[in-house]
Amino acid sequence: MTPPDDPHAIRDLAALEALFGTPSEAALRKEASHLHPVYRQWIEASPFAVLATIGPGGLDASPRGDPAPLVAVQDERTLLLPERRGNHRIDSLRNILADPRVALLFLIPGVGETLRVNGRARITVEPVLMQRLAMAGKPPQCVIEIAIDTVFFQCARAMQRSSLWAPAAAGRRADVPSAGAMLAALTESAIDGAAYDRELPARQRTTLY
């Protein structure tokens, strides 16, 4: 929390707008209330997105990925996101049951721009949709149907600053703890991190779908 006597804190909308100025015409006009054909073309090329939700326990943002297209376009106002196998925490799904508001950030490898979708979601296991979104012969565990409220693209500055798609970064693993190392540390070695890392690739291959 910001200390109440912090003279540098931005505390109201007027101060915030004064700091940043007026958005450009392009920044305002790129927003649509439906999936414009150019946005549909973009979204159908995306294999990856981050899904943001909110619920009684707070916020959640989690990755979603499939061979492109990640989502199926039902119509210009509706997206279908398959919920594949995961860790069964179902944080996003719990939140959607409590509050249907969601946001999606779509990425395409090598492309600097991203696409943002805000909308309202519901969870369905309708058989036709489940079969339509099957992968490797296996249907998703459920489908998140998203009614679009707004959609617009984000400029490439964040990707340029991060060099996320730079050739030098391709195929290079950052010097960060492995999944097993993190679990061992968090559980005070109750989980054998080395064994977890050894078994993980095979487990991921057999449980991908």
UniProtKB/TrEMBL annotation:
SUPFAM superfamilies, A to Z: FMN-binding split barrel
InterPro entries named in the record: Pyridox_Oxase_FMN-dep, Pyridox_Oxase_N, Split_barrel_FMN-bd
Q: Which Pfam families match?
A: PNPOx_N
Q: Where is the Pyridoxamine 5'-phosphate oxidase N-terminal domain?
A: 36-155
The protein's name: Pyridoxamine 5'-phosphate oxidase family protein
Lineage, uppermost ranks: Bacteria, Pseudomonadati, Pseudomonadota, Betaproteobacteria, Burkholderiales
